[in-house]
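Problem: given the chain below (229 residues), write out its structure.
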Amino acid sequence: MKDASKRYTEREFSLILSKAAELAGSSNLVSRIEDGLTLKEITSIGAEAGLDADCIVRAARLIPEDGRPSVLSKAIGGAFRDRRAFDLPGELTDESARRILNSARRVMQSHGVGDAGASGVSWSTKAGHVFVSAQGDRAETRVQVSVDHRAALVGALILGSAGVVAVLYTAIAAGDSGFANPYLVLAGGAGLTAAYVWSAVRRIAAKTRATLERLIDAISESVDREGAS
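Solution.
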């Protein structure tokens, strides 16, 4: 499998074990950190801290492959559009394809659009903001999951713009009536509007990340369970 031979950076190592501890509900920490470890080596190190191997494998599937996050992604806690590709053991069969499809439908609570079979899986929500695909390659299955919530930004920006207009109108009205200092009204209103927009942006990024992780976990669990049976 590609995931087994891939070597992870020091940062990815830390992220995998941190996420594995989160999945396992453990607070154990690992002090040994090295660059260029394989998943097997990371699993061995994690076992020393009492972390379950399955949790580590699941965590590795949640780690992005596109290097370090941008400054914006760090600031808002994620991205508005995210994608993961990972390998699952076993060839793609009609049964495993149906499991992948049903997992995506269950997580998104939507029948969506698409089909599944041994030749591949291609499914998306009707709105198109979530897309899942899978292709078999002999003894493994390559799965791709994409979540795009950029459209949700439109609503936040519209409300933010409306807030700016309302603040300007209120400040002008306050100045004309002499009821309050218009500059204080403007500063306070602008601060509240900016805080609202920033909070909305962070919620969208968090929703993108959470949706992606739920999909990956559900798909992985369904196929892993099939392989164990």
